[in-house]
Structure formats: C-alpha cells, structure tokens
Write a structure and sequence with these properties.
Blueprint (H helix, E strand, L loop, with lengths): L1 H14 L8 E3 L17 H12 L4 E2 L11 E4 L8 E7 L8 E9 L2 E10 L4 E7 L8 E8 L4 E9 L6 E6 L5 E5 L8 E6 L8 E8 L2 E9 L6 E11 L2 E9 L5 E9 L4 E3 L32 E6 L13 E9 L4 E11 L4 E4 L8 E6 L4 E9 L7 E14 H7 L6 E6 L2 E6 L11 H7 E3 L4
Antiparallel strand pairs: 1-3, 2-4, 3-4, 4-5, 5-6, 7-8, 8-9, 9-10, 11-12, 12-13, 13-14, 15-16, 16-17, 17-18, 19-20, 20-21, 21-22, 22-28, 23-24, 24-25, 25-27, 26-27
Length: about 450
Amino acid sequence: MKNWKRLLAGALAALCMTPLGGCGVLFSDDPEALMRPPRPTGDKTGIHEVLEKAAGEGFTLKYPASGDVRSAIVMQDITGDGVEEAIAFYQKADASSTGVNIMFIQKRDGVWTSMGSFAAAASQVDKVLFGDVNEDGVPETVVGWGSGQSGVSNVSVYSLSEDGTKLEETVLDQSYAQLLVLDLDGDGFEEIFTATVTVGDQPAQARLLRLRSGAIEILSSCPIDSAVTSIVGAAGGLIGENRMGVLLDGSKAANSYITEVVYWDRGKRALVSPFFDPATQTVEITTRSLNVVSRDVNGDKILELPMVNLLPGVTASSPPDTAYLTDWHQYDAEANTLSRVMSMVTNSVDGYWFLIPDMWKNQITTEQDLSSRTLTFRRWITYGENLSEGRAGDRLLEIRVFTAKQWTEEEPNGEYFKILDSNNLVYAGRIPSPDNSLAMSENDVRNSFKLLTQE
C-alpha cells in the first residue's frame, strides 16, 4: 500500500508540471498575433530595427508549430559568452516571399547587429532545438522546417563560425516524422535523433546524427516498424537508471497504436530497437487500441510506456476510455522485458484519472453514466480462470461530478464526500460497499484522484 502511494505522489508531481522551454522569449507567442509584431520598447527596439531593416516594414513573425520552444523570437546564448543572442523567424513583407527566414542577432558595443540570416523554402517552422552537436563547447541551433507529420520536412543546423562572428548553415536534406536533440550515446555531447515512417522508397528508420567539419555524419541507424503511418509522439530521456533512449508512439491502422523503444547499445555502439521483429518488420508487444503517449508518469525521471487493455465485462462496440485500464511500464534493457510501474483509469470526458491500487488488479470493471457524470468501479467476479467470463459484483466506488450549485443543494444528505473542487465543479466520491474487502478509504480515494492536465 505504501509503495503505490509513493508512486502516486511522483505521478501527481509529473502530471501537474507544464513543459517550459529552456530559453527566454520576446514578444507574444500567441499564433493569433502573427500578422504584425507590436512595436517593442527599450532594449528590444534594437532587435526589431535589425529585423525591419532586413525584412521590410510589416514583416510577419513565424512561430514554431511543435516542441517546447514556441516563440518567434528566442533568446539563447549560442556563442558561449554568457550573453543571450536573439534568434528570429519571420516572413518578409514582400508579397513574392513565400518561405521562412531565420536571423541571428547579437549585441556588440551596445548595438544589435545581424550575425547572419538564412532563407528556407518551407512555409512553416516545425521545431527549434539546441544542443552541442559538433562538440565545440557551445550549443548549435537545430531547426526542423515544414511539418514532420506531413512528411514534408527537413533539418538545418546553425553553428558558430571558427572566428565566432557569424553563423553557418548545414542542411540535412531528408524528411523526418520526429526530431529530437539529446545525448543518446552518453559521450557528454548531444546528437540529432530523427525517426521516419515508410514513404515510397524511404524506409522507416531511426537515425543518430552529429555535425563534423561542417557536414552531417550518421553515427548509426536502425529499422523501426514499417506499418506505422504516423509517429504521434516521441519522448527522449532516461529509459532506465543509467540508459538514455527514445520512446516512439506510432499510429498504424485505425485504432491501432504501438510504442517502439530505441536506445544506444553501448556494446554494439549502435542504435537498436529491441522489440522490432525483422521477419514481420513490425512491433507487436506494445500494441494497443487507444492513443496514449509515453511519458514520465510517476515523476522518477524515467520514461514509461503505456499498455492499454479493455476491462472485463465491457460489451460496447465503441467503449469509452473509462472502460480501459492503462498499465504504465518501464523497459528493462538487461532482461529485455517490460516492468509495470502503475495502473490507472482515465475519464477524459470529466477530465480526471484514477490510480488503481494493486489490490484491484484483475478485480474490477467500470460503468459510466454520462447523464449523471458518474463513474462506478465494481468488483468483477469471475466464473473460472478466464477473466472475461464473469459478472459485475458490489459497487466499490462512485466518482461523480457536481456543479458547485448542485453540490450546495445535495451535499447535506451525506451520501458523497468531497474529493476536490475546481473551476466551479465539485468532484465527489461515494463508497457504496464499505465492508467489501476491496473497499478503499476516503483518504485513499482522494490520494488516488487527479485532474488531467494539458501537456
């Protein structure tokens, strides 16, 4: 019991955090404000003047469509002197200009000046990342142009010239579905990680790249699931205590999703995908029917991947997400197995998830009443060894959502206890069968309940 409470505390901390970019930003990052940037004041005026001189009055700021960095003007130290430079994405005011431009601007002797500008044929900035991918001691700027999901994309790396006065561009002329920058091989420097789906003659593969002498060098590559049509998520980081990796969440046929594990094998000195079957060119072990993406769900700094299974007794042709149990697993590279960390049921309609205690494992099913906004957990009584054969027994827990007004009017009858309130809603619980051996306490219910957060 103490163990799952500890896991829940970590999960709450992880899910409540909103991802933040590691660099400062200027101007609004609201995509609705694209048409004309506001006139800045103070020190920012100089940046605007450099941009306007190059792009023309009335230029349009362009905002990255994905990733942690979502601002059109980013402040980042790319020279290693401890002073931030400005990186701007914009489209020129000239009506004939259809591509996106990037400009690097630094402050010298109190005056903002351009370090270099480059034009891309793409009409969109997909992602902006930073990392020392050429081992020169300062971070390079890695930009994904176009759209990774559409397959029309490429990568540019902007690195500091030897004299440190300007930026130079190196282009990787190949599309990608997902793009990350991280130190995957553990050498203390970041690499560029790309993943692609099968498109024409281009196979589905993961690649690890770095910049050497102004050219892109492929460190390693490995095949990944050839049946995936879209990589809907990519989480990079620790997949074990001392092992970095990437979890790729892919969409295959309708309502079919998988997670692929990719990491750097130190012995082979190569990228590997341990669940990839060369005979079928696919991954099957992580197949599921719900689109749930991998993440660090319990706050232990190690990524988990989801395994989703329909609860017993569900007969609906299109079950809601409350009819599924999501088991979160970590990958054990030494044993090449998955180890369950925690389990939950998610109610996306009412915006919360509930941690399932170990004593409920293979012991419950759910019923959802949309009209009363009630989710009921019931004991599942099996007729034999087959979990799917059985019936619903005692009601162990009801979670119901009230408006604040409804709660004020109905709470005095004492049927429900408050779990929490938020945004004029009260989330309440009721334990209909307190004497059942699987009954939870009110305090345990509160500790197991968490509102969904936008990530």
